[in-house]
């Protein structure tokens, strides 16, 4: 079902008799910075201006009326199709969230490479240790061999029993070498570990 805000956008061309048919696409172009939407808005604006100019002339009144009627139909249908995917601003919010998560993933990758190449430097920067981290942004990595049970619960949503199991086994074996060992030595279900895999690192002493 189309969301309420999407319905309002679809009504703009209809309620304005087509004269504001360009507005939803101008907003979309501004929000998403898409050239295609800007071109669409410009096209509908030119259509509107042409119809209004012709409407002022008695000899072309019928043509102008036809252009406006067609503009209302086309703009309303087009805007409804676009709005069916969700409100413009909320869609932008989703785009922003995806971009934010992409940037976090890139920071995690850089931090992982640093941990592999320069483990001592990584430790000094607090990579994977939100309890010790300074100003270095590692994208939310968690060192399974160093963080507390409370952090595992808070950051990964693991239960207290799961987190306690991790810290108890870690203490007994001296740390986990990787996801496979975490899976084989603890009671945490594979899907739980898979869901957290992008954030986990396994440092060595």
Query: Could you give the order of the helices and strands?
Result: HHHHHHEHHHHE
Would you report the number of β strands? Answer: 2
Strand arrangement within the widest β-sheet reads 1-2
Oligomer type: single chain
Q: Please tell me the total number of domains.
A: 2
Uncertain regions: pLDDT < 50 for 5+ in a row?
Answer: none
- Distance linking N and C termini: 55 Å
What's the overall average pLDDT, rounded?
84
Radius of gyration, whole Å: 28 Å
Largest sheet: 2 strands, parallel
Q: What structural category do the secondary elements indicate?
A: mainly alpha
- Helical run tally: 10
Helix fraction by DSSP (H/I, runs of at least 4): 55-70%
Taken as a percent bin, the fraction of beta residues is: under 5%
Protein name: Helix-hairpin-helix motif-containing protein
Region (Disordered): 86-110
Organism: Streptomyces iconiensis
InterPro entries: RuvA_2-like
Describe the fold and architecture.
This is Helix-hairpin-helix motif-containing protein. The chain has helices at 4-15, 23-32, 35-55, 61-83, 88-117, 119-125, 149-156, 160-173, 179-185, 190-196, and strands at residues 142-143, 200-201. It is mainly α and 205 residues long. The protein folds into 2 domains: 4-86; 104-201, no CATH class. A two-stranded parallel sheet has the order 1-2. Helix 5 crosses helix 6 (119-125) and helix 7 crosses helix 8 (160-173). 25% of the residues are buried.
Question: What's a quick, concise take on this entry?
Answer:
The chain has 205 residues and is an all-alpha fold. The chain has helices at 4-15, 23-32, 35-55, 61-83, 88-117, 119-125, 149-156, 160-173, 179-185, 190-196; strands at residues 142-143, 200-201. The chain has 10 helices and 2 strands.
């Amino acid at each position: 079902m189309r969301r309420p805000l999407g319905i309002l956008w679809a009504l703009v061309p209809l309620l304005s008799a087509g004269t504001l048919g360009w507005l939803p696409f101008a907003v979309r172009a501004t929000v998403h910075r898409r050239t295609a939407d800007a071109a669409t808005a410009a096209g509908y604006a030119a259509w509107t201006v042409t119809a209004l100019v012709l409407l002022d002339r008695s000899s072309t009144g019928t043509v102008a009326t036809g252009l406006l009627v067609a503009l209302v139909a086309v703009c309303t249908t087009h805007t409804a199709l676009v709005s069916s995917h969700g409100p413009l601003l909320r869609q932008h919010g989703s785009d922003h969230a995806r971009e934010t998560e992409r940037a976090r993933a890139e920071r995690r990758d850089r931090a992982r490479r640093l941990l592999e190449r320069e483990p001592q430097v990584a430790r000094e920067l607090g990579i994977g240790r939100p309890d010790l981290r300074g100003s270095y942004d590692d994208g939310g990595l968690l060192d399974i061999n160093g963080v507390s049970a409370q952090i595992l619960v808070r950051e990964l949503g693991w239960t207290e029993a799961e987190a306690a199991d991790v810290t108890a086994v870690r203490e007994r074996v001296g740390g986990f070498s990787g996801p496979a060992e975490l899976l084989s030595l603890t009671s945490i279900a594979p899907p739980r570990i898979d869901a957290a895999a992008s954030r986990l690192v396994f440092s060595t002493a």
